[in-house]
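Note to self: keep these together.
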Amino acid sequence: MASVAPEVEKKEEEEQVVNPWEVSAGKGGIDYDKLVDQFGCQRLDAPLIDRIARLTGRPPHRFLRRGLFFAHRDLNEILDIYEKGDKFYLYTGRGPSSEALHLGHLVPFMFTKYLQDAFKVPLVIQLTDDEKFLWKNLTVEESKRLARENAKDIIACGFDVERTFIFSDFNFVGGAFYENMVKVARCVTYNKVVGIFGFTPEDHIGKISFPPVQAVPSFPSSFPKHFSGNDQLRCLIPCAIDQDPYFRMTRDVAPRIGYQKPALIESRFFPALQGENTKMSASDPNSAIYVTDSTKYIKTKVNKYAFSGGQDSVELHRKLGANLEVDVSIKYLNFFLEDDDELERIKKAYKEGRMLTGEVKQLLVTVLSEMVERHKRARARVTEEMVDAFMAVRPLPNMFG
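Structure:
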């Protein structure tokens, strides 16, 4: 068998694909520095995080402190607006393709709730049930049903109903929203959309026509009953960095149709239990922890599937310690353990071999089980009437206070 040239092998290892529908990386995981350069966004640095803390009067969220939300576009301009006493609004979303959310799905909503509470601003949440119909083997009716079920999990995160509008594309698109969609569509050529999203001649035209649907919630004029008279209100979008292509397109089009560019604050990817080189998948329930999992199931998944950076034997582990860069339990604790000092204590002891993999996994099981149980209790309190209230078309307050 012919050997592979070293330069070809290196090229294959370095190739990574990141777009809204596919995330894949080489052996080293996602190269976020390369991604920032490729996408043209900015790093979220310490002075910007300190400024958020100063303006909001509260400590930065752990996702900020630990670099989990790590990149942005024009966040400094949003903070300038806020500091002057002007307004902005938040926009994030969910593609409803599964009955229940996993912990990776919760991350942007947990962070968005922090932003809503800290800045006291309105929020729109888009449920792209149409997208899931176009990309997945789902009927319109099933997509709409999943959207409503997912809305209950989103509401359970604790959003302020007075400041939050949740909408399903199938139920809401039309009127001013649709007018903005066709304005965007007329500004984006076929070649441009292929270049941004990688569509192929085999993709049906529904996929090619979808990007304007996700673009226009960035414009307040898409919500005339919510933001009446505020057509130049700035928008901040918290999302994972794989959604960036949608909003690069949006930011390019916005000035051409008379609107402000949306700003973004973007997160790293939440890893699968098997490690950063595998993807969480609804077809593999063991790749993720779901908000419906029992404590017993969480324990089984973590103990059996969470990739370990520990050594092969206790003796070797005591001598060499763990590789924290690949250990999934440490990565999950980095997301969900609130106490910075406790996290550092665990990491130091594990790295030095004083803590074993089993001990770290047991700590993680406790943290995740408590979080999932809290979510279940909150989810159980969400009624159909509450979902209707969040989805009601009405003015959103956009004054601070």
